[in-house]
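Trying the structure run again after the queue cleared.
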Amino acid sequence: MRLVWSLVAVSALGSTLACTSAREREVAAAIGPAIAGHQVPDVPAFYKLHSDQAIWVDDKPTSAVKDAFTALKRATEHGLDPERYHAAALEERAATLETAKAPGASVSDLVKFEIDVTSALVALGRDVARGASGPKATESARAPIDVGAKLAEALGNGALGTWPDPVRPTHPQYAALQKVLAGGGQPPDRVRQIAHAMNGWRLLPDDLGARHIMVNIPQFHLFVRDGGKTVVDTRVVVGKEGDETPVFSADMTSVILSPYWNIPESIAEGETIPSIIKDPKYLTKNNLEVLRRSGSKAERVDPESVDWSNSEETEALSLRQKPGPGNALGHVKFMMPNKNAVYLHDTPAHALFDRSGRAFSHGCVRLEEPLELAKYVLGEDPAWTEAAIGEAMHAGVEREVKLKRPIPVHIVYFTAWIDDAGRPQFFEDVYRRNR
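Done. Tokens:
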């Protein structure tokens, strides 16, 4: 006898549901111990909602398993390979169990098949919910999703064939990429780009912020979205190979007008100090100061007193570039505290924005139109008019302005993007990550 399960029926009948054969009773008795301590918590969670009852087998595979196979094959709609979840092998095992006459199919065979089907469905759901795992997997910023409960809900609603849609990201871009993928006609390399982009969306929080900033590295573009609309759209320069701009999310908390540039130690050692040794006037030409720091205090040092070829001496010093038109950060930088020490900033090297490929920085993001971004992020304070911002940007005196409300910034890596007209756009894999 085939058993058709639903959340309501199982709740009502529970473990007292009668089996019609000794083999079914043996299978039912073996399920609980088999799933206890399963390494993936979502699997026991799924069976707990079904009172530890078998779903995909009784004395052989049930009709419900066909819907499970349909769901596994839908992995392609999410840019994933069904064979990652052993779909074909599970179908072959089902056929073998279907034709095996008792006692040809042992209880252990049936129980293992039962749990393997659930594990495959859960693995597909977890990949779609939180990002496909791999040797270079990035941790997802999405809120945790109870995949086992969602799978049980789909089964109870008779909607198993829609799995894993109930756990997919809610971003419109994800759905748009799915639509393009389903439309077909894309060559394999484009399909791969779409698949990587879809996985990128699984790593982002569902709520990006009612207003937020997004930098798409391969597109060399920054967008400010407010209330679902793009209010700032500007070209950017990102990190060059070896100094790649990282993918992360952080809150912008302040704007620094007429900033100093505190030269990172790696740049000082690898570029600045060798230039000083080669040209003693390099410091003056580039408006640089030499400092000796002690805790939060900094004391200026006469550069003439420094032996720049002595690494032990230079290790105790730091360099910074004073505000001004030649400052490497330009006239403004936008702070978003993060472990990568990456921020957004102006630049004096405006000619780079005419290039189609714009990976030239040491990792930070350079803006073509920093004034437009400053006007937006400071716009909640009426004192910061465009004239006031412009004046402070060129004052030559560093000034930090705290934002009234932090703004989420998301730096992403999508080589496939759907524009507002629903057309797919593809960009060069500048960091060769889609391989």
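Confidence is low (pLDDT under 50) at residues 1-19. Worth checking whether this holds up in the mutant runs.
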